[in-house]
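So, could you explain the following?
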Amino acid sequence: MKTSLLLGAAALLLSALPAFADDLPGDIKTMTIDGKTVLTDAKGMTLYTYDKDASGGPATCADKCASAWPPALASADAKPVGDFTVTKSADGKPMWAYYGLPLYGWVKDKKPGDATGDMVGNVWHTAIEK
């Protein structure tokens, strides 16, 4: 009886998990921050989008910008997964995009769960699950 109750509870818990998790590239994760599902890199660091990037285009953040906002790089053989595509960083490396917008980290985030880059210059935004 206890075993079937545990199995039933486990099935209920698994069915409550978002399907979104199945559509993530291996090096992109999610985390709940302030009640929102935020995209993170594999280490749990928050990812961001940049208003100056065009949806479906390559990243425009280069040089000093890319030093502060490093691209969320993808492997050379990365393939699109769900709402994630592969685009090019300003220096031509493959990087992840979500709904066509390139994804970046932020050097001032020091630990998983930090989201200090949101609204920097009114052009950077935390990448949130749609």
Summary: Confidence is low (pLDDT under 50) at residues 1-19. Residues 57 and 127 are 17 Å apart (CA to CA). The radius of gyration is 17 Å. The beta strands are 28-33, 36-41, 48-50, 84-88, 94-98, 101-102, 124-126.
